[in-house]
Design goal:
This protein has helices spanning 4-12, 26-36, 65-72, 80-93, 111-124, 139-143, 158-162, 182-185, 188-196, 215-224, 273-288, 293-302, 330-337, 356-363, 377-387, 404-422, 444-458; strands at 18-20, 41-43, 53-56, 76-79, 101-106, 129-133, 151-155, 171-174, 204-208, 228-230, 239-243, 246-249, 260-264, 311-316, 319-323, 342-347, 367-372, 393-395, 427-431. The protein starts with a helix and ends with a helix. It is 38% helix and 19% strand. The chain is α/β, with parallel strands linked by helices.
Amino acid sequence: VTGDATARALVKIGYEVTVFEERDDSRHRELAKELGALGIHVTFEIPEKFPPLVITSPGWKPEHPILLAALEHGAHVMGEIEFSFMHDQQQLKAGKSAKRIWLGVTGTNGKTSTVGMVESIIKAAGKSAIACGNVGTPVIEVLTAPEFYEYLIVELSSFQLHWTSNLHLSAGALLNIDDDHLDWHGNFQNYLQAKLKIFNGAEHVLINGDDPRLHESIESLLREREITTYTLQVPQYGELGVVEDLLIDRAFTGAQNVATELAQLSDINPPAPHNVSNALAAAGLARAVGIEPDAISQGLRAFTPGHHRIEKVAHKDGITWVNDSKATNPHATNAAFAAFDSIIWIAGGLAKGADIETLVKRRHQQIRAAILIGTDRPLIKNALEKHSPETPIILIDEDPSLEGAERAKALMREVVLAASRVAHDGDTVLLAPACASMDQFQSYAQRGELFVEAVTELVGQL
């Protein structure tokens, strides 16, 4: 049970692989033929017999029928991350591979930016590094590729961490926590506990000291072990933090009375508070494994944020158009709202059990109009009507006569048209949906790309 990239990698290292695919359609039938040519058996029905090891798709809940059947047959179920780490340790022990340094990043938001920063910093130090895991390239694919990377900077989702029990990182960071994926985990406490598994066996623990929902976890961790926190405030001994316009290390200096300058705020793009926090986490992970300060400032300057993260795509007639499609939960959307004043808010999709009302209550004075799409838009509509009844709400529906990409493209074009009609000088049209995209789009990336495409067509480029 695995993704096709993982299946290909497993065959490459000598495993006999069976893939279970629950989506029985023409596209996956074609993929099954392609995998079959590599000697991979693909089944669209729950098999009667199971191999001793099952590698699960991270998005499947533990009570998925295929996983329950596997456990009933005595199979060992784990995730691709766990398998990859164990494989790497076995190769090292057998003398077939040099030692790799595993660094991990998790949190509700900021993971992708942070692993990218760490990768850039370590490359600036002249070492080989790759960001992998939930960010894109599966770790097992990296391990079985011809090129050797000494540093693996692994983005870890709560789903992936749920399935780990033997992952031992050189250093792990927990960036923040807020309601997300509660439909998968059942409740916030289960979600938090999955995130905290990043620290099981980790040599260095790095955690955001500014996040109030992590304070109890910090106190609990401190009773068990030494940890490092980071803050946007002036750091105390054992912390990383900010002094005026400098990022300062008081955790990895070797002496209580020594503070080391790591970078300037101007090295960070963009220098918004949430991204400065990410940079402190990245710097802390690098310092934990001995990277020098010069490489940190150099690496942060060289890092370019990915698309769909508070990305300005156009400015015309005093109106700014911003793509933050990666804001798939209220916590991320709140960070985007902090950067703007008067907002035409494009929102909606799959809320995943998150509390959107708190976001609306906190930010409603900035919302001049809301354009809502998707399955869970009633949650946003109800919150706006309760806390900001004067805010205009525009509902945009899909065209049922269209299908697939054409339907998604037409929907986003209507959204942008609606926004252009209500926006005026001084407004920011902000796509920050606070929801996942899969009800109407292939991914948050497609959602963002279609927004940029529609804005470029109807408004022009930046």
